[in-house]
Amino acid sequence: MTTLVDAPAVLEADAFLDVLAARGLGPVVGVPCSFLAPAIRRMEDGADVEYLAAANEGEAVAIAVGARLGGRRPVVVMQNSGLGNAVNPLTSLASTLEVPVLLLVTWRGEPGFPDEPQHRLMGEITPDLLDAMGVRHEILPSDPVVLGERVDDALRHLDATGRPFAFVVRKGTFEKAVPRPPADDDGGAGRPPLRAEVLGAVVDAVGPETVLVATTGYTARELAAGWDRPENLYVVGSMGCASSVALGLATAAPDRRVVVLDGDGAALMRLEALATIGAVQPPNLVHLVLDNGSYESTGGQRTSSAHVDLVGVARACGYGDARSATTPSAVAEAVRGATGTTFVHVPVSPGTDPDLPRPSIQPPDAARRLAAALASEVRP
């Protein structure tokens, strides 16, 4: 059972990775969290421990099972919100095959530590959820010597039981990482637009009755800060689900245009949503993927979007129109001219207002406000 202790001293990323490397652990595979940003940054920059970015946490567990069967000693990293995605492979894959995996699970929403609304419930139940899955767990120590001893004990547990073990990572365990600066060899000339510039162009292009569904992270925060309206929905949690929420809205309100403002990491996390949208083909749905190639709000870790032809994927899934748009005006034109199920891939540059506020409206209030707007008789 995870026990509460005083907030730990800072664990240096290099010291942490030295513990893993000394025991031959790797690859580290998973989905980033800001709590782990310094360690992931060091691995991305060439540390001795290999890092493999997965699109979602369940995929990471499955990769780790395969790596373990192949003779490696993998470590799975995830935010505790991602435990929801990992429940099935932990309980019906790793457990069934009795292939143990070592987990690092960050504790967003830990009781007593203020956090965003989407982390409250999972923060409360994280220890109980691990218990329910039969996952032995304890707090990740901040002292490197103690950490090494606890990792050794965890590895003995894996080998003796065939069951997983999780280190729970509390806020402040690692130092806060400075976001990775974007490459800018030409002083900014020719770089993609900022996400906020694209959002402004979209809002200007749509009518007041158009529903805008924004994915979690900076997209929702920027839309709320600059263009809040009753027809906006801010999907502040459930990464990857915004496009599916938009599909439900589009089928339930066929007289309303629905535009989903997605991100590359989010789209990749729930890529199956494109297949369902393409099969249903709602004529009133426009799916924008704002692609900055990173998980920007967790520290700028790289996604795999540079290796994926998202326009080609959308076409293959059955979208009636799939294209790229590289300027705010081109995005606005694509949104205004959409006549069927439309996909638009929009390269954007990382970067946001450092003083960007969080949405002032609480998630339940935003949901109720949108439902009331949809229930009105006003139609385009």
UniProtKB/TrEMBL annotation:
Q: What are the recorded GO MF terms, alphabetically? A: magnesium ion binding; phosphonopyruvate decarboxylase activity; thiamine pyrophosphate binding
CDD domains in alphabetical order: TPP_PYR_POX_like (cd07035)
Q: Which UniProt keywords apply?
A: Decarboxylase, Lyase, Thiamine pyrophosphate
Top-rank taxon of the source lineage equals Bacteria
Xref: InterPro entries:
Phosphono-pyrv_decarboxylase (IPR017684), THDP-binding (IPR029061), Thiamin_PyroP_enz_TPP-bd_dom (IPR012001), TPP-bd_CS (IPR000399), TPP_dependent_decarboxylase (IPR051818), TPP_enzyme_TPP-bd (IPR011766)
A Pfam family cross-referenced in the UniProt record is TPP_enzyme_C
Bias regions of kind Low complexity — which residues?
369-380
Which residue ranges does the record assign to the Thiamine pyrophosphate enzyme TPP-binding domain?
A: 234-345
Q: Which PROSITE patterns match?
A: TPP_ENZYMES
Full protein name: Thiamine pyrophosphate enzyme
The organism is Cellulomonas algicola
